[in-house]
């Protein structure tokens, strides 16, 4: 198989039929040997982290596909820690979409004059550019259009899908008494018609989850869900 990309936590290969294979590695992001899901560098290796991330990803993508929301997901092989997906074209060099249900993290740091940490938010959506050198800057819908990254129509679709997907993830977590504070998604253009679709993964490292006000670590989340 042809190697398309060596990522920090996943490698991407092209299969003979044109689909992509994502290999979930045991490398996790962090700084100075301490696990930090938000970090932009690989910090350490945790045995089983790849499979745990894939199990959650498979679980959520199957629910999202079943709800009729377009994704890249085809199937997953837990044993091999691989997932077969449809190849996506990035918006620019890639965007990340953050959906917030509580005022924590960078939202609270930015807007602390107007909210208290932990205040409820009604599904607030933000888009950032994947740009490690510039710490993934925030961008507006106007900025995305002006810089030729995505059209206004694509932006609207992406926001709508984000809110629908968020409700699905939030609902599944709530079944286990877990509360979703915020979550990060990636979207791309998929298929011959270049439709907007959810790509990448949905695992513990992509979200902040709490139980009774206590933060749940990504690997612990997988144990609590299954
Ligand atoms: N269907 C897809 N088609 C093409 N690329 C994809 C698809 N799904 C995910 N990707 C890309 O595969 C890469 C997986 O690598 P990985 O998760 O290790 O992230 P990264 O790019 O190294 O870093 P980060 O997650 O911090 O941005 C990401 O760049 C992601 O955007
Ligand atoms: Mg990634």
From TrEMBL:
GO biological process, one term: 'de novo' IMP biosynthetic process
Pathway recorded for this protein: Purine metabolism; IMP biosynthesis via de novo pathway; 5-amino-1-(5-phospho-D-ribosyl)imidazole-4-carboxamide from 5-amino-1-(5-phospho-D-ribosyl)imidazole-4-carboxylate: step 1/2
UniProt entry keywords in alphabetical sequence: ATP-binding, Ligase, Nucleotide-binding, Purine biosynthesis
Record EC number: 6.3.2.6
Keyword ATP-binding included in the entry's annotation: yes
Domain SAICAR synthetase/ADE2 N-terminal: 4-215
Cited InterPro entries: SAICAR_synt/ADE2_N (IPR028923), SAICAR_synthetase (IPR050089)
Gene Ontology MF: a single term: ATP binding
Catalytic activity entry: 5-amino-1-(5-phospho-D-ribosyl)imidazole-4-carboxylate + L-aspartate + ATP = (2S)-2-[5-amino-1-(5-phospho-beta-D-ribosyl)imidazole-4-carboxamido]succinate + ADP + phosphate + 2 H(+)
Pfam short name (any one): SAICAR_synt
Gene3D superfamilies per the UniProt record, alphabetical: ATP-grasp fold, B domain, Phosphorylase Kinase, domain 1
Name under which the protein is recorded: phosphoribosylaminoimidazolesuccinocarboxamide synthase
């Amino acid at each position: 198989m042809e190697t398309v990309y060596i990522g920090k936590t996943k490698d991407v290969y092209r299969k003979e039929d044109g689909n992509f294979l994502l290999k979930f590695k045991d490398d996790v992001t962090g700084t100075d040997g301490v696990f930090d899901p938000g970090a932009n560098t690989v910090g350490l290796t945790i045995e089983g982290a790849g499979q745990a991330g894939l199990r959650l990803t498979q679980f959520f993508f199957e629910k999202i596909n079943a709800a009729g929301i377009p994704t890249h997901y085809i199937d997953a092989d837990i044993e091999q820690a691989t997932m077969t997906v449809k190849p996506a074209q990035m918006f620019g060099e890639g965007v990340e979409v953050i959906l917030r249900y509580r005022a924590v993290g960078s939202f609270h740091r930015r807007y602390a004059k107007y909210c208290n940490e932990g205040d409820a938010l009604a599904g607030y959506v933000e888009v950032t550019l994947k740009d490690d050198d510039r710490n993934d800057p925030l961008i507006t819908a106007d900025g995305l259009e002006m810089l030729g990254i995505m059209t206004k129509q694509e932006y609207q679709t992406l926001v709508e899908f984000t809110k629908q997907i968020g409700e699905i993830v939030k609902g599944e977590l709530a079944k286990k008494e877990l509360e979703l504070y915020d979550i990060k998604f990636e979207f791309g253009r998929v298929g011959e018609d270049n439709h907007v679709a959810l790509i990448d993964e949905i695992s513990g490292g992509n979200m902040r989850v709490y139980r009774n006000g206590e933060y749940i670590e990504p690997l612990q989340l997988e144990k609590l869900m299954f």
